[in-house]
């Protein structure tokens, strides 16, 4: 199977298998359209490539024709005609590889529906059937442990004309069916993708990978297996079952009395900004708000605590809030993670956001906190219906419980977009009579989107001046038992045991805007080098640097199978601070070993997904690990 990642597909699909009239009849018979998350799990047959077709795209089309709202999730993505679908398909990988990584992947992307098609990438001589079936059983067990309500469709994999290599597939499919039957779980369903599969008609020249017609056949069989579930009275039980809250711009709650008290006394006021790239942006609402505050309250002296890191969510925020915010003794902390948390389970968002609140107030209960919310293009349909998206709905539960004020800075922009007086996206070099909010559907332009954010924030801050009385905020009993109140970050220099050729470096940090946030970084390019960290708890992660010269790393925790975590993505045309957190560990003491993953990444294929133009490939040739702190 081809080892490719994140590909652009270039030929149009023609939906011909399900007649439109049939779809309309089915839609009319359904009680209501279903909105659910779905993960394609497998190898290159799931992922697709520039030369062959992924079934994900025609399946998405079939589901949407029937009036449903599928949300494809996973750590990887494929692009076709401007449509990006996320998945967990790894070209060239085996079922055993997927089993070794599914626990951490599914914990991060707990899909309502999983489509498992895995069984290729072995040879007949290996007698691989028992190992593949055991791996699939392990995958199912791992998913069910995290989400017992998950629906898992397990494929009898497509046959191939590449013989004798794939002669074992008929035997494998018989064994897979028996394994699924033995589980006696009505939510684990065998789907025979091999029945009637005509590889001479349905594959490209290699006799393995689906052509356009083949991808359509696979998609239709998945669809027909899903249809009874979507049409039933119970439907698919979503892991995102919490209700979405009505959208509102402003909730005062207990206000910001200590912050305004200091302003009125003419004292120095320290304002912290904890968030992602929207907060990080130079010239954006953060800079604009500080300018407004200094003009509005000239007698006070405002000091900024800049604690925003691009591309990061509230989990990293909970791990680093001590060093990046609390240690600087803020008077007010703005917390902004709505966009980056949007695809996470609501329970997880509540746990991480509550962890941030409890850590701040445990250190100083007089610190005021304000949750602020931004939005992206994918949120427009919900916001236009006056509904908060999942992340904001989860954050509002925490804000309401702790009486923290909240401001949605984007509803005014959504209103203008709905009226046609503002464009959600556009191109900077194309003049338009209508102002453009953003170039990419996420990051506001300083002169338009950020200006709206600042205006809304300033207006509502003036209203908050009259709420609450100065004093300590009560630290209530925990809302969520697994709140990240004990999360943290520790330098590797004090925590790790290094083996082999490691060196401390500032080559990717010095002079960078994130240098104060991660000044100590250790690096290796040696496949023989490793580091070990002993820790106690259920979480383990690293704060590290990603960029042109970074690579995948291999992490082995205790005696678990190694996990491969890619530290190079389509945005790695520059160096940036990043992180990952594994939060699926059993309680207790653990040891993690980190090293470079074997093999080299296809960086060109990864960058191609964003059409990144690279003139000089030399900076991309190194395969280096840059890591600085342990997250827990």
Topology (elements, then pairings):
Blueprint: E1 8-9, H1 20-29, E2 35-42, H2 44-47, H3 56-65, E3 69-72, E4 76-80, E5 83-89, H4 95-108, E6 113-117, H5 129-146, E7 151-156, H6 169-183, E8 188-192, H7 199-202, H8 212-231, E9 250-251, H9 257-264, E10 268-275, H10 277-280, H11 285-296, E11 301-308, H12 314-324, E12 332-336, H13 346-363, E13 368-373, H14 380-384, H15 390-402, E14 406-408, H16 411-419, E15 423-425, E16 436-438, H17 449-464, E17 489-491, H18 492-495, E18 496-499, E19 503-505, E20 521-524, E21 530-536, E22 540-546, E23 552-557, E24 563-566, E25 576-582, E26 589-596, H19 603-608, E27 625-631
Helix pairs in contact: 3-8, 4-5, 5-6, 11-17, 12-13, 13-15
Q: What's the Cα radius of gyration?
A: 25 Å
Derived structural class: alpha/beta
The largest sheet is:
8 strands, mixed
Low-confidence stretches: 1-33
Mean pLDDT over the residues: 88
How many DSSP helices?
Answer: 19
Which features characterize this protein?
632 residues, alpha/beta, eight-stranded mixed β-sheet, six-stranded mixed β-sheet, globular
Describe this entry's structure for a reader:
32% of the residues lie in helices and 22% in strands. The chain is built from 19 helices and 27 strands. The strands form five sheets. Strands 1, 2, 3, 4, 5, 6, 7 and 8 form an eight-stranded mixed beta sheet that branches. Strands 9-14-13-12-10-11 form a six-stranded mixed beta sheet, sandwiched between helices. The radius of gyration is 25 Å and the shape is globular. Residues 1-33 have low confidence and may be disordered.
